[in-house]
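Input chain follows. Return structure tokens only.
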Amino acid sequence: QQALDIYKKAISFKPNNSEIHYNIGNIYRSQNKLNDAIKSYNKSILINPNNFKAHNNLGIILQDLSKFESAFKSFKTAILINTDYAEAFNNISLTLRDQNKLGESIKNSQQAIALNPKYSNAYNNLAATYQKEGKLLKAIENFNKAVLYKSDYADAFINLNHLLVQCWVDINNYFENKKTIKEKLIPLLKT
């Protein structure tokens, strides 16, 4: 709250400072005051339409509110302003995955990784998309890369663990079914 008060005081001296409005938006976002955050990001963008981070963060909130088309536009605008902004490509990937556009999602995750080869969030998101596609080996590979580049990345560890457990269960079920089939077939073959 103290940081918010300081920024609000700063606004009274510099009401047309895009960065101050952007930072207020970040504080509101961290407090889950999404409508206030949206207003602050929009004010920041109104003052400085080239504030690509404000466009990106606005997109994140819109995505969280399931306003995918508006989120997509915000992320695209961020990329038009800064074509090397890996975070916006990663966020587009999430928006596309949420809409089940998996192929496009993968391409955007790969673009984020091409721009930042150690971007652990992009590897985690790419892995989750591969998992959703049923490409489990690619998912495991990318969850491992997420952890490699961010060794304390709890979400990636959890995602990898869940996937490995599911694979183990599937393998056990496969062999149990084979055993059951074999046990049923042997008596039939003897007759």
